[in-house]
Amino acid sequence: MGYRPSAMTETAPRTPGAGEEPASGALASGDDHLHPHVLVLCTGNAARSVMAGALLDAHGIRARVTTAGTHVVEHQPMSVRTRKALTSIGVDVPAHRSRQVVESDVEAADLVIALASEHVRYMRRRHPAAADRTATLSWLAHNLPPGQKPLSERVRPLGLAELDPDFQGDVEDPAGGDDDEYLECALEVQRLVGELVERLV
């Protein structure tokens, strides 16, 4: 499965993408029940999780991808700098409105990808049943076992609820930064997502 930057490919009419409800990643309509659900989480659902969700979609993974935040002003578009950063790295900019993570998101997720340790802690406090399905993007990019088993069966033995969030690795929040800082963030997320997709599905 290859990465498909927007400037290089011709795309079919797309289903709702990362950050939209319902989101379907690379799945055709009605097909999402056959594939894992990946929830991507940051703070405001305006930058880091949007970048990661868009990049997962760009890789065409066979999963339903949704994005949300832990402390969100809802129904806001992604930041202008997020849009510019995604465009700069050749990724389709998804239609997007910010969303607060809710229980139904968590219950449906086979894996929760947090962009920083604070989001892992949030999940443990507010949604403890998902603690064993939640880890940072950085940690998962290096430690998620690849293979043919369903994603949920590969996540379960990892003991994620026992991992110290402080040692999982963060993607720094670019909020308040300039265009270069957003681009640096997008490049970091691009690298980590590229490493993760080979393990994911």
Write the layout of secondary structure elements.
Layout: E1 37-42, H1 48-58, E2 64-69, H2 80-88, H3 103-108, E3 111-114, H4 117-126, E4 134-136, H5 137-143, H6 151-155, H7 179-200
Parallel strand pairs: 1-2, 1-3, 3-4
Helix pairs in contact: 1-7, 2-7, 5-7
Structure report:
- The chain has helices at residues 48-58, 80-88, 103-108, 117-126, 137-143, 151-155, 179-200; strands at residues 37-42, 64-69, 111-114, 134-136.
- It has a single domain (6-200), classed as Rossmann fold, CATH 3.40.50.
- The protein is 35% helix and 9% strand.
- It is α/β, with parallel strands linked by helices and 201 residues long.
- The radius of gyration is 15 Å and the shape is globular.
- It is built from 7 helices and 4 strands.
- A 4-stranded parallel β-sheet has the order 2-1-3-4, with helices on both faces.
- α4 (117-126) links the parallel β3 (111-114) and β4.
Read across the widest sheet, the strand sequence of neighbours is 2-1-3-4
CATH class: Alpha Beta
Average pLDDT for all residues: 86
Low-confidence stretches: 4-33
In one word, what is the shape? globular
Describe the largest sheet: 4 strands, parallel
The Cα radius of gyration reads 15 Å
Name the beta content range: 5-15%
State the end-to-end distance: 10 Å
CATH superfamily: Response regulator
Comma- or semicolon-separated keywords:
single chain, 201 residues, alpha/beta, Rossmann fold, four-stranded parallel beta sheet, 7 helices, 4 strands, 35% helix
